Every structure is written in structure tokens, then in C-alpha cells.
Amino acid sequence: MARRHVSFACEGELLIGTLDEAPGATGLLIVTGGNETRAGAFSGQAQLAARIAAAGHPVFRFDRRGVGDSPGTNLGFRWSGPDIAASLAAFREHCPELARVVGFGNCDAASILMLEGGTGFDALVLANPWTIEDGDEVHPPGAVRARYGEKLRNPREVLRLFTGKVSLGKLAGGIRQALRPAPAPGSLAQEMAAGLMRFSGPAAILLAGRDRTAQAFVAAWDGSNSRIALCPNASHAFVEPDAREWLSERLLIALAQE
User: Fold this and answer.
1) Contacts of range 150-159, beta carbons closer than 8 Å, 24 or more positions apart
2) Which of 72, 104, 156, 171 minimizes the number of CB atoms within 10 Å of its CB?
3) Residue 14: in which H helix or E strand, if any?
């Protein structure tokens, strides 16, 4: 399948995107999280796009304003709604055969897709949504408990504890933090939940079991959600071979839905 770069306008700037062409009528638009370029961490998004295109679905990814090859001012994820809308319009323009588009984002890219209510998309796949606001704890009690639970299930970590290779002071501090009650959901998590409620299409939430951003999301999210799926041994960017395969499978499921 062919890969080509395209440019498109967004509020007076000319943004750069990459299109992996494929014959399918359902496409995937990848929204990059943080300040990463459209290639993703360790070129993970570029590789993911190639896999999805090889399965028959066109894929579009882009650099928002002020990131990577795109000029302008980087205002952060909360203000990237126009960039996403412009990229979606460009995707449809370059692939006029598209009948459906699935939006995929990891970290704060998932957050903005939720905040925007999935506008323009037919389905959403949201990985490790970012719910931590300025001034919040990066590692809330729920995330700390998950971290210590993982360590206690690891025989090597237990051996380190009994052989004196673990700081008892740090351990005691961590336990105190883990035992604190969970904070009330912050306004960002509430805004994301409200945005997702406005979206009428299917939405899947994917969580990496070893990712503290995902653990913080679970602590902040109000109630259970049948749309949540967990990849237990995955890190934040799903870089492990089995996690990459798991993520690809989940995306292909979303792309196959009507």
C-alpha cells in the first residue's frame, strides 16, 4: 500500500499529515497524544498505520499546530479540536470513498476526542485517557495500590524486600499514600465523561495494565464501563510485541463494526 504526505489548512496554518492508502471504506484517523509527532513514540504510530492499511483500511495521522512538521503555536491538547476537525476533513477529501471514520487517540489525544464529543467520527477507540489536571497528584492512591500489587506479585521484588534492598522509608511512605482515600473525580474527568455521553456511536476504552496514566484514569472514572478492555502487561505506548498485536486487533474490531 502507498504512503504519502499531504498538507491541509487549519485556522491560517498549513498542517502536515500522512496518509497510508488502502481500498477500504472505513478508515482510521490517529490523533497523537502529548507533544509527539505523528510517527508516535519509537515510530509506533507509523508502524501501526502500516499494519492497519495492510489489513485494508486507509489511515491518516497528522501533526497538530506547533508540533513536528506543522507550523503555528502549540496550545496543548485542550485547544486541538480545530486541528482534529481539519484533519478529518482532509482525510475525507483525499479518500472520498470513505463511509466511516474511526478516531483513535492515546493519552491526552483520547481525552480531547472525549471532550469534543467525538464530533465527526463514527466510532472512537480511546487508550489510556489522561485525567490528571494541573496540581493533581501524578500517582493517586489507586495507581499506587496497583503499582505495589504488581510488585508483590513479582518474586524478584519480594526477594529484594527480604534482602534489605528496598528502602523501608520509601516503602512506608508509599503505603501511606496507597491507603489514602481516592480523591473525588476532577473537573477534567467529569468533562470527558460528559463529552463521551454526547457521542452516539460506539466507543471502546483500552487500558494498559502497567501504565500509571491508565491507573489514574480508573481512579478518576465514575463507575464501571463495559466498553473498557485491559491489556495486562502493556505499557503506555503498547510497545511490547503482544501489546502491539492486541492493540491492532482491537482497532480492527472497531473498524469492522457497522
Assistant:
1) 150/210
2) 156
3) strand 13-20
Contact 13, 70 (CB under 8 A): yes
List, in sequence order, the alpha helices (H) in the chain: 44-54, 81-94, 108-115, 141-152, 155-162, 168-179, 187-198, 212-220, 241-256
Hey, which CATH number is domain 3-136+184-256, 2.60.120.260, 3.30.200.20, 3.60.20.10, 3.40.50.1820?
A: 3.40.50.1820
Tens of pLDDT, residue by residue over 127-139, are 999 999 874 445 5
Distance CA 119, CA 102 (A): 11
Question: Cβ(104)–Cβ(251) under 8 Å?
Answer: yes
- pLDDT band for position 177 (cuts 50, 70, 90): very low
Q: Are 18 and 3 in contact (CB under 8 A)?
A: yes
Domain range list for the chain: 3-136+184-256, 141-179
Neighbours of 4 (CB within 10 A): 10
pLDDT at 121 over 50: yes
Print burial letters for 16-32: b (CB count within 10 Å at least 16), e (below 16).
bbbbbbbebebbbbbbb
- Give percent of the chain above pLDDT 70: 78
CA-based R_g, the chain, Å:
19
* Among 83, 139, 125, 117, CA closest to 192: 117
Distance in angstroms (rounded) separating the CA atoms of residues 230 and 178: 22
Average pLDDT over residues 169-193: 62
Residue 141: its pLDDT value, please? 56
Edge to edge, what strands does the sheet with 123-127 contain? Answer: 3-10, 13-20, 59-62, 26-31, 100-106, 123-127, 203-208, 228-231
